[in-house]
Design goal:
alpha/beta; seven-stranded mixed beta sheet; globular; binds calcium ion
Length: 223
């Protein structure tokens, strides 16, 4: 037994998946189709999608935001967990990848819950704020260009209700954030972002070593 987070060997990961993953067939097919793309590794892990669905239900989420859709696995996981009148505003700039997403969302019967906005996410989020959307969302998932994380975080924090939750992907960045030899712009942006959130008193924070690292930032009622 150890109080340190386990190093997941392939064998232990397979075990984890075997005893916990409940992946709907449509998500499994979307994952398979996406894995065949050259950018397939941008897709979130299936256990992460399942965890996000659990968070939605735990919070009673009805209105959600997503920054960075790719082929729609996380959006579909969340949309399936939202109630029938729930809504997810999904932001991306790539028409090709999100066409795959739409196909699966529609097949799953949740296309009507997902409002895809093909535009720079900062513009979409700013427009939501300008339209009176502050404080009206329960959950936000940030998983897009890493240099944009700080801006997305600030905008999402304003859009969240008190005790709303921001979930941020790739905060451990394949371990490169802890490698002093790595200084590319994305790695540096994630380092700055992680340090900022660590010190941000407006949120309660936890960084989970799930998949590529997942930060949970809960908006404090006073912020
Ligand atoms: Ca990601």
């Amino acid at each position: 037994m150890t109080n340190k987070t386990l190093q997941l060997t392939d064998r232990l990961y397979e075990y984890l998946i075997g005893v916990s993953l409940r992946e709907p067939e449509i998500l499994r097919r979307l994952r398979a189709e996406t894995s065949a793309l050259p950018e397939g590794n941008m897709q979130i892990a299936p256990e992460q999608g399942q965890f996000m669905a659990l968070l939605c239900e735990l919070m009673g989420a009805r209105r959600a935001l997503e920054v960075g859709v790719f082929t729609g696995y996380s959006a579909l996981s969340v949309a399936l967990a939202l109630p029938p009148d729930g809504r997810l505003i999904a932001c991306d700039v790539n028409a090709e990848w999100t066409a795959i997403a739409r196909r699966y969302w529609n097949e799953a019967g949740v296309g009507g819950k997902i409002d895809l906005r093909l535009a720079p996410a900062a513009e979409t989020l700013a427009a939501l704020l300008a339209g009176g959307g502050a404080g009206s969302f329960d959950l936000a998932f940030i998983d897009a260009d890493k240099e944009g994380y700080r801006d997305y975080y600030e905008l999402c924090l304003k859009l969240l209700r008190p005790r709303g939750l921001i979930v941020v992907d790739n905060v451990l960045w394949s371990g490169q954030v802890a490698d002093p030899a790595v200084h590319d712009p994305a790695t540096e942006a994630i380092r700055r972002f992680n340090a900022f959130v660590h010190a941000d008193e407006r949120v309660r924070v936890a960084l989970l070593p799930v998949a590529d690292g997942l930060t949970l930032a809960l908006k404090r009622p006073t912020s």
